[in-house]
Structures are given as structure tokens and as C-alpha cells.
Amino acid sequence: MILFPHLGPELNETVYLMAAVAAACAVPGVFLVLRRMVLVGDAISHVLLLGIVLAYFVVKDAASPLLFFGAAAVGVLTVALVEGLQRTKLLKEDAAIGLVFPFLFSLGTLLASMYLRNTHLDVDRVLLGSAELAFRDRLTVGGRDLGPRAFVLLGGTFVVFVLLIALFYKELKLCTFDPGLAAVLGFLPAVVHYALMTSVSLATVAAFDAVGPVLVLAFFAVPPVMARLLTKRLVWMLVLSVILAVTAAVTGTLLAIELDITIAGTVAGVLGAMFAVVYLFAPRAGVLAEMIRRVRMWREFHETLLTVHLHRHAGTPAEAEESRVDGLHEHLNWTEPQTAAVVRRAVANGLMVRAGDCWKLTDTGRKRAEEIVGPRLGERGASAP
């Protein structure tokens, strides 16, 4: 199916491939973000070369599917090594990643440079990917062309992830948010953890050759973070993460094709721009929403402070002076414009009314003040049984 007829079949396949990469990485990325393990995903995306090289030494075939599983195994090994160092209590997680990731990555790069010079496993392709050329690597079964190998692999990976999450949603949710309770209930959080890390490795390997580790990490981190800013519910985080990732992938790919520039870099740039928009304008957790919330709290604070002031002096000899319309700002140590703005909002909210030259609290304003300082002493005695 060709969604963009003006591009032709090959470029359409490239768009589909990038969408499949985005969806396949965004799903496990949600759990990486919630578990604060995005850096582990970064480490996995960089050390896969070592697994590919080691598997190639065994099978001597650069097209063998065993390279896929070898790379995934090294990804899981990376997680095990990081956690093993962390359990010694001598290193924190970031330091353990900083030790394991560069060592395994450099080892894989050295082996590829030394022994695989005549294969497609060159260092530039490993680092940058080749989304523009991925459509040339076809998957053929029984003489029938099923499309780009990476697209079929990533599409299948995404479907498997969705099925696994549907089957084990409760276990994943509990082990992510409360692993202690999950262990007490017998859910084996360690097994769930390594199953998740295996899924991350599989998604990374599937996308590795097409887009490289940098864009894989971007899809792991950015769409889930945007979804986290937009919703607190896990199921909607998963849905929004996939939608946002695919939107960025398709938009970035089309823009790169139009401008004739690198696809991976353009998609990463689109992801960054989308994150900036969400970060600024998310309805509940965005910067603008937080600023509005702070302004509203500041205004409510000043209105409450004004009601407390009037409540403290209500019925006292000093009331006429302390609640005087033209002298209120002097007693509160506010500027006249600030006092006028607070009074205007308090009147509009039904907290106070003008009575001659003074301000009086309404029942609503008195209740607000009593929530802070309690009833006045005389009123306490009057209300006692």
C-alpha cells in the first residue's frame, strides 16, 4: 500500500520502516522511562556490535539470523554486568554503566575493524545506521518478496510486544511501580525485569542496522517522556508513546526526503521539537501550566492573607482603622496597585464586600480565614455547648 504516491514505492517503504522502528522502540521505552533505566537502554544500543561480531565468528555468515540473537544476548549480558557491579555497593548505576558500556562497545568496534573489513559491518554504519538504504535488504519467502527485512522484523517485534503486554499487563505494572509488593505476591520481579531487558535488546537489534543506536535511544526515551507529561495512566502512556513516536518518524522522514538530508538526524530533530512543544504546553505538567498554577496559588495566598487580616480585626476597636479602604495597603505592607488587584479579585470571588469606608468579610471569606486561623476567641465561646 502506497500512502504517499508522489514519493514512489521505495521511499514509501522507508517511511513505513521508520514508523515500525518508532513503534517497536516506544513500547519498551515506556517501562525504561518509568524504571529510570534509559541509560541502560543507551548502553544496550551501543554494545550490540560485540554480539553481532561474536555470532559472526561462529556462523561465518553475515546474513544469518543467529547474529540477531547473539546481539540480543550481549544486550542482556550488559544489563547483568551493570547490575552485578551495582550490587557490590561499590558503584552506583551510572558509574557501572560508564564502566561496562565503553568496554564492550570498544571491544566490538575493535573486533569489527580488525576482522570484518570486507563485510557490511563497518563502524560508520553501526553508529549512524542506513535508513535510506534499508529497503534494499529484502525478505523473501518461497520466492515472494515480503518487503524490507527490517520492516518485517520490526513490525513483528511490535506485534509480539503488544501481545505480551496484553497478557502480562498486571505483572508488568506491579513490578514497575512496586517491585517489593510484587515479590511478596509471588510475581518474580527479577524474571519480569530480565524479560523486559530482553525485549529492549530485541527491539534494539531489530532497529540497529537501519537507524543506528542514537535514534534507537531517542525512540526509547523521547516519546515515553512526552507521554508521561501528558498522562499518568500506564495504558495511555503506552498508546500515546506509540502515536507520538510514529508521528515524529513519519514527519521527520518526509521532511528529510523533501530536503534531501539525513533521515536519522531529521527524525531526531523532529522528536526534539515535539518534546519542546509538549514540555512547554502540556495541559497538566507543562512549563506553561506550571507557571499558571504558581500564579493562581500566589493569588490565592494573597487573597487568603487579606481575609485573615480582616478576620483578626473584625469586631475589635481597631477594625475601622485596619480595614479602611484607603489605608489597607499600609497595614499589609503592600503597594497600592498590588492591594487594589488583590481586593478586586477577593470581591469578585465573593470573599469581601465594601461597607462604607471599610471592607467586611462575607460568610465565604470568613470560612476561608477560619480554615487558616480558626474561629475568633469570642466566636469559639459562643459556639460552645
UniProtKB/TrEMBL annotation:
GO cellular component: ATP-binding cassette (ABC) transporter complex
Spans through the membrane: 15-34, 39-59, 65-85, 97-116, 150-169, 176-196, 202-222, 234-257, 263-282
Gene3D superfamilies associated with the record: ABC transporter involved in vitamin B12 uptake, BtuC
InterPro entries (UniProt xref): ABC_BtuC-like, ABC_TroCD
Localization annotation: Cell membrane
A GO biological-process term: response to zinc ion
Major subcellular location class: membrane
Family statement drawn from the similarity comment of this UniProt entry: Belongs to the ABC-3 integral membrane protein family.
Protein known as: Metal ABC transporter permease
Lineage, broadest ranks: Bacteria, Pseudomonadati, Planctomycetota, Planctomycetia, Gemmatales
